[in-house]
């Protein structure tokens, strides 16, 4: 189950840094779009108003004799509009290229960062929540990029341009304008900070809601078998109600923010317009200047309204992005060494040297566990549930690291190797092998990307999967559904075994690999596995002891993870210990000598 921890607020610079480290390769495209759009907005909303100001002054003061100047300013005005059109179209090209390629790179970066984490990280979290967080992280970049360019940057350029123009025609009006804008900013910023906190709360509960939804869909069969639709709807409804409360809290802050801003802007418009008229009555500004100031004020109202809505989207995007960045900054509990050793083609000697391991909750699994599997030796691991059999495979595959001792392959501590190098030498079949929602061909060849169709078919034959695959309408191109849901448990397991056969690794790990098969299929696949294990080191975990009776050696683990017995099948039966009791229990008292 996903842990719900106290939410921390990341600084804006941290969030922007994570985006920038990925997209900075396109920085010159970003800079170009900023500069070109900035010039375009000056021509569109600042310089054109200056042209209108001169035209109005001519019309108001000079009459017919001002006709030549009117046409001059008319041509200048037309030039400003044309410049705005051209600049924005060029800016669109740079903007589209930079954003499109940045989104592609960010998607790959998220995928890569996710896979940096260990298996344990994913087992503690809902896949639906992670998928939702990843999608929102990408969408947040698009929102932030749009807001940064089209609202924050262009509004800033526009306001600065207006201030400079007003200052040229009336320093007194410019000073009044500057003081009013600063006052608005000082009043609004605290409300924006409050809004960010609320948005982060909404994003967190939204992730939990998505995780619950995904979990219910993935386990729909269990829900229906146990007739628990009502319980699931109730639990989902509680989360939905929690999300709705968070959303309404966010909206209340937004309404307060909008009300304050609109009230301040209205007061600003009335005050500055009054001051402009007063200056006109004193003969200190022209009619055109009054119209220019009022036009700018109307633009400022639109700018601030846009900034309010953009700030809302900006803060929500920051909240959405922070969830994924927290995952990025979370250290992996199993990492590759900074300078990994080169893994030689192994003979397959496996050694657990005084290994002690405990889970995060403090429960000990092993204390000083030591055993060795010689090259090409076949070793079975048996014992009661909770004795640590599956943990042995997790440590061997480096899904976790021991707190003490070491796991070695051919004398190399596996912690000194790259995880990919290590796992490339191990073929693993789990008790419940899940498949990709891809074709059977892709699933079987997953460990051997360049395998020919004949190699895939041969592996399927050895796993006794070829016959049922050929009966399917699309054969090897049949999609198996999410997690292989379209196949039976036995069919999924045979596909997984075919995948392991095709991988052709020197070390083989089977974790209850035949548990999902009927007796006939188990017998046939056991023959294939016997063939597969020839010349390879194999560790086989089984509760069904008949599957390991032919092992070279069987290691029996006790309740607390210690080795209580060791030997081949006949030797262990003769000892009359734990293995003999387990065998007797499974065979109804019949002891095979």
Topology:
Blueprint: H1 12-23, H2 27-61, H3 67-116, H4 119-123, H5 127-169, H6 171-218, H7 220-225, H8 229-281, H9 287-329, E1 350-358, E2 364-373, E3 378-382, H10 389-396, E4 404-409, E5 412-413, H11 419-423, E6 426-429, H12 440-444, H13 453-462, H14 466-471, H15 489-503, E7 507-511, H16 519-533, E8 537-541, E9 553-557, E10 563-567, H17 569-575, H18 578-586
Helix pairs in contact: 2-3, 2-5, 2-9, 3-5, 5-6, 5-9, 6-8, 6-9, 8-9, 13-15, 15-16, 17-18
Question: What does this entry show, briefly?
Answer:
The chain is an alpha/beta fold. The chain is 63% helix and 9% strand. The chain has 3 domains: 317 residues, Up-down Bundle (ABC transporter transmembrane region fold), CATH 1.20.1560.10; 158 residues, P-loop containing nucleotide triphosphate hydrolases (Rossmann fold), CATH 3.40.50; 61 residues, no CATH class.
């Amino acid at each position: 189950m996903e842990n719900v921890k106290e939410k921390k607020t990341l600084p804006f610079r941290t969030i922007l840094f994570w985006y920038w480290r990925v997209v900075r390769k396109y920085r010159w495209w970003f800079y170009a779009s900023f500069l070109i759009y900035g010039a375009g907005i000056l021509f569109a909303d600042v310089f054109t108003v200056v042209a209108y100001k001169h035209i109005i002054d001519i019309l108001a003061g000079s009459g017919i004799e001002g006709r030549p100047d009117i046409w001059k300013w008319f041509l200048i005005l037309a030039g400003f509009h044309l410049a705005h059109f051209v600049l924005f179209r060029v800016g669109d090209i740079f903007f589209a290229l930079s954003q499109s390629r940045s989104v592609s790179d960010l998607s790959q970066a998220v995928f890569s960062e996710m896979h940096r984490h260990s298996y344990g990280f994913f087992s503690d979290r809902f896949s639906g929540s992670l998928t939702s967080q990843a999608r929102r992280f990408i969408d947040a970049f698009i929102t932030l990029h749009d807001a940064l360019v089209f609202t924050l940057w262009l509004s800033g350029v526009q306001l600065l341009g207006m201030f400079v123009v007003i200052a040229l025609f009336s320093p007194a009006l410019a000073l009044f304008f500057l003081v009013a804008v600063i006052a608005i900013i000082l009043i609004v910023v605290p409300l924006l900070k409050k809004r960010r906190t609320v948005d982060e709360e909404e994003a967190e509960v939204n992730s939990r809601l998505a995780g619950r939804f995904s979990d219910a869909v993935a386990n729909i069969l269990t829900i229906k078998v146990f007739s628990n639709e009502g319980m699931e709807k109730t639990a989902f409804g509680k989360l939905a109600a929690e999300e709705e409360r968070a959303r309404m809290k966010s909206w209340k802050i937004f309404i307060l923010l909008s009300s304050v801003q609109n009230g301040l802007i209205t007061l600003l418009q009335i005050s500055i317009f009054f001051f402009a008229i007063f200056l006109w009555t004193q003969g200190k500004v022209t009619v055109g200047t009054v119209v220019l100031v009022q036009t700018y004020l109307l633009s400022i109202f639109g700018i601030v309204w846009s900034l309010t809505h953009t700030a809302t989207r900006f803060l929500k995007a920051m909240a959405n992005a922070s969830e994924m960045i927290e995952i990025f900054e979370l250290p992996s509990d199993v990492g590759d060494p900074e300078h990994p050793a080169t893994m030689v083609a192994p003979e397959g000697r496996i050694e657990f040297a005084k290994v002690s391991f405990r889970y995060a909750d403090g429960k000990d699994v092993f204390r000083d566990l030591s055993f060795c599997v010689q090259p090409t030796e076949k070793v079975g691991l048996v014992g009661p549930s909770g004795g640590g059999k599956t943990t042995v495979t997790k440590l061997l595959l480096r899904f976790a690291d021991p707190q003490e001792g070491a796991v070695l392959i051919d004398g190399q501590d596996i912690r000194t190797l790259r995880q990919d190098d290590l796992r490339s030498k191990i073929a693993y079949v789990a008790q419940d092998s899940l498949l990709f929602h891809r074709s059977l061909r892709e699933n079987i060849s997953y460990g051997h990307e360049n395998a020919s169709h004949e190699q895939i078919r041969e592996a399927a034959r050895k796993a006794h999967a070829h016959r049922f695959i050929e009966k399917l309408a699309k054969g090897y191109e049949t999609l198996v559904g999410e997690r292989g849901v379209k196949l039976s448990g036995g069919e999924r397991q045979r596909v997984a075994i075919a995948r392991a056969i095709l991988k052709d690794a020197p070390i083989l790990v089977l974790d209850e690999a035949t548990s999902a098969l009927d007796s006939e299929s188990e017998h046939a696949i056991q023959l294939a596995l016997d063939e597969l294990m020839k010349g390879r080191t194999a560790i086989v975990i089984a509760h069904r002891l008949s599957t390991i009776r032919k092992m070279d050696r069987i290691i029996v683990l006790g309740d607390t993870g210690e080795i209580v017995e060791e030997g081949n099948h006949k030797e262990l039966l003769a000892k009359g210990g734990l293995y003999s009791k387990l065998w007797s229990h499974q065979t109804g008292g019949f002891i095979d000598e």
